[in-house]
Amino acid sequence: MILKQIIFSKKAQSKGFEDDKKSEKPLRSVLKALSWRLIGTIDTLVVSYILTGEIALATSIASVDFLTKLVLYFFHERIWNKIKWGK
Question: Could you report the per-residue pLDDT of 32-86, keeping only the tens digit for each?
């Protein structure tokens, strides 16, 4: 319920229209991508280890996954910042 209020409540949004229509800075997108990828990489590492039973192979898979999805997420965020729909 609280999350719903934060997401959908106009009062919870402290920015005005002029601030809201500006996109976030690239550094923020990078930090968001890094934090999300850390969570995702831990998940990939655990799943890969469960499936393969080999920590070295699981670590390799998780490392490649981290790098490729970090780059993809960054560009995904930057593209969405250019889309005015929903802002």
Answer: 878 888 999 999 999 999 999 999 999 999 999 989 988 888 898 889 888 888 8
End-to-end CA distance of the chain: 22
**Can you say whether residue 17 is alpha, beta or left, with left for phi > 0 and alpha for psi between -120 and 50 degrees?**
alpha
Q: Which residues contact 70 (CB under 8 A, 6 or more apart)?
A: 33, 34, 37
pTM over 0.85: no
Count of residues making up the chain: 87
CB 78 within 8 A of CB 26: yes
Number of alpha helices (DSSP H) and beta strands (DSSP E) in the chain: 4, 0
- Contact by Cβ (8 Å): 74, 29: yes
